[in-house]
């Protein structure tokens, strides 16, 4: 990498402070004659005050107050928009610069300081041929600014080794910009010790670019503590890339704290990636509005990942149309994740052709999620052959969920030998679902030990159903404590069945200390729509005398299809005097095969004298059971027969 490019990996090349060569400003005041030439370290420090820059700054002329008359002495036109003033000041500046150049040319033959200033002025103007002899004269006379700027000129012409010689001479004489340039040159030639030495010299003198380049070198060598020190030094003087890199160091450290202030500093100076990282941090802690502002700034600065993140933020806020606009912008800039998101959005709108188009764009951007999503799209439309083709493409590229989906497809087709390797590949790559599916595969073959190992692996990665399967196995073996632990693990990860089974397990312990937890887990399962849990919540409410709550839960469960809940609701309504409605729920429960409900209907019919109907319900009760119900139903049937034949 050339010294002109200057930055390390991950550096913003558009940053005006990164990778620029050291040229010095021409001071506002110049010597009047050879006897008043600029000499000494103090004067050279004045010449080098500009620091790391690719070209010389123009001299700053003193600017007199604007006269109400223009240069020709005529009165300025009313409504002047500033163009005349700009023209006047430009002309004045050109005159002053021409006069300065003339004075420097007169002094340059005798005064090396003037020669150095003139060479720098000509180099800035883009006249290296005219500048070179003046800079060589100054450098040969020991003017370190002249030596540094001669190095710049030679480097621009491709004479890099000679440039390094002059930079070395200037650096030895105390020039921080030259030490910086020499450090970059040595780094690019593989001399890291030499590079570190000179960059350190520049950094110690307060040179911003030197501090940044030194930190970059140290971070590359994983010397993060020292790197952080010099990134901080550069950032504190306004170097935006240093502030961003310091933020990244802070974010990836063990503590993971302190990054935000540096991201803010860099983002405030227009650093697109810093604005993106700041947005991510703000979104993580729920400050979505401010996160969106920084994402927008980053996206407008050309960072497609920020446009993609802003799209997700807008979608989650309910503005899918605005989300689509940002995703489209990011996708067209090559962000595969945004293209996938846009495809999924169109799919949710029922626009499958557009969805497929954007999934293909994602794939072309190198995002294999595109192939996986194309597989899902085809599978949903019944295009099995095409779905398999896309799954295979993504799976061969290492997409773990595509590998799992392909294995599921093969397994459903009956190709277990073909499915198992893909399940294994997906599981080894970290697919939790694939690990669980391998557990099912081994359990189906009676290989319980292997099944438990895969279930345990999936459960360890948060798979609730896998933890549930482990709990059931533990309970069957009589290990109640281990079963409760696994049930609790699965319940905490959202398994309603596990929450219900845990409550049952604790309730069976019949210990008062578990009562509160039993109620809690039944309620968790019931709220998740678990019918049996809803019945148990209703029963426990009824036992406490809370018939209102009991009725509510019985109704929810009954309306969800629970025959036990329908029967219990019937009993509750009958006790409260609503026998007509109770009969409706008894009938629903009996029609679903509930023996006690059928028997109850038989008894009510017998009491009403509807003997034939009572006989039919008792026959059904005897058929449904259980044993005690069957016995009572048979006795009632015999009594009914006697009455019917009497």
From TrEMBL:
- The UniProt regions of compositional bias labelled Gly residues, in chain numbering, are 1-10
What stretch or stretches form a coiled coil here? Answer: none
The UniProt annotation puts the region (Disordered) at 1-94
Task: Report the leader peptide range.
Answer: none
Q: Which SUPFAM superfamilies match?
A: HCP-like
Checking SMART domains in the record gives: SEL1, TPR
Extent of Basic and acidic residues compositional bias: 55-68
**Low complexity composition bias: which ranges?**
41-54, 70-80
Query: Which protein are we looking at?
Result: Tetratricopeptide repeat protein
Species whose genome carries this gene: Streptacidiphilus cavernicola
Output the lineage of the source organism.
Answer: Bacteria, Bacillati, Actinomycetota, Actinomycetes, Kitasatosporales
């Amino acid at each position: 990498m050339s010294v002109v490019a200057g930055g390390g990996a991950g550096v913003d090349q558009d940053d005006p402070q990164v990778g620029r060569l050291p040229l010095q400003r021409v001071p506002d005041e110049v010597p009047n004659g050879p006897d008043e030439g600029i000499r000494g370290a103090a004067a050279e420090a004045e010449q080098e005050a500009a620091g790391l820059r690719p070209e010389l700054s123009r001299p700053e002329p003193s600017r007199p107050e604007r006269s109400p008359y223009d240069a020709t002495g005529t009165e300025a036109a009313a409504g002047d928009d500033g163009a005349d003033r700009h023209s006047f000041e430009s002309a004045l500046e050109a005159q002053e610069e021409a006069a300065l150049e003339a004075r420097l040319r007169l002094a340059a033959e005798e005064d090396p300081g003037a020669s150095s200033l003139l060479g720098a002025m000509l180099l800035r103007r883009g006249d290296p041929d005219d500048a070179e002899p003046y800079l060589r004269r100054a450098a040969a006379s020991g003017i370190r600014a002249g030596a540094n700027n001669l190095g710049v000129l030679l480097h621009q012409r491709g004479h890099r080794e000679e440039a390094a010689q002059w930079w070395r001479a200037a650096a030895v004489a105390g020039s921080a910009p030259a030490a910086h340039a020499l450090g970059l040159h040595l780094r690019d030639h593989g001399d890291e010790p030499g590079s570190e030495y000179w960059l350190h010299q520049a950094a110690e003198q307060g040179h911003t670019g030197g501090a940044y380049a030194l930190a970059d070198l140290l971070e590359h060598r994983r010397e993060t503590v020292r790197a952080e020190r010099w990134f901080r030094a550069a950032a504190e003087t306004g170097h935006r890339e240093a502030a961003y890199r310091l933020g990244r160091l802070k974010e990836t450290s063990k503590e993971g704290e302190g990054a935000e202030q540096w991201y803010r500093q860099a983002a405030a100076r227009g650093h697109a990636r810093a604005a993106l990282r700041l947005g991510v941090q703000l979104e993580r802690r729920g400050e979505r509005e401010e996160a969106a502002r920084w994402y927008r700034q980053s996206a407008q600065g050309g960072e497609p990942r920020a446009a993609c993140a802003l799209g997700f933020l807008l979608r989650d806020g309910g503005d899918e149309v605005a989300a689509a606009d940002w995703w489209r912008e990011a996708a067209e800039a090559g962000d595969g994740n945004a293209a996938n998101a846009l495809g999924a959005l169109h799919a949710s709108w029922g626009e499958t052709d557009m969805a497929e188009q954007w999934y293909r764009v994602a794939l072309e951007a190198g995002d294999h999620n595109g192939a996986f999503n194309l597989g899902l799209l085809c599978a949903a439309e019944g295009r099995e052959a095409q779905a398999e083709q896309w799954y295979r493409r993504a799976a061969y590229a290492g997409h773990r969920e595509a590998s799992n989906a392909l294995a599921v497809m093969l397994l459903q087709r009956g190709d277990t030998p073909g499915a198992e390797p893909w399940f294994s590949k997906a599981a080894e790559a970290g697919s939790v679902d694939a690990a669980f599916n391998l557990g099912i595969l081994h359990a189906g073959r009676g290989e319980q030990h292997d099944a438990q190992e895969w279930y345990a692996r999936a459960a360890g990665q948060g798979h609730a159903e896998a933890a549930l399967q482990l709990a059931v196995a533990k309970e069957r073996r009589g290990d109640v404590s281990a079963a409760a632990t696994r049930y609790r693990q699965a319940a905490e990860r959202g398994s309603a069945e596990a929450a219900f089974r845990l409550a049952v397990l604790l309730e069976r312990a019949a210990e008062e200390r578990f009562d509160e937890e039993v109620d809690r887990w039944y309620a968790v399962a019931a709220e998740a729509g678990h019918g049996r849990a809803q019945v148990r919540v209703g029963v426990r409410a009824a036992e406490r005398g809370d018939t209102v709550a009991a009725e509510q839960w019985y109704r929810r469960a009954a309306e969800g299809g629970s025959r036990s809940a329908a029967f219990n609701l019937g009993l509750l309504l009958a006790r409260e005097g609503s026998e007509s409605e109770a009969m409706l729920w008894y009938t629903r429960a009996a029609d679903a095969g509930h023996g006690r409900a059928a028997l109850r209907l038989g008894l009510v019919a017998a009491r009403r004298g509807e003997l034939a109907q009572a006989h039919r319900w008792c026959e059904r009760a005897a058929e449904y059971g259980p044993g005690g119900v069957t016995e009572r139903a048979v006795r009632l049937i015999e009594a009914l027969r006697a009455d019917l034949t009497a």
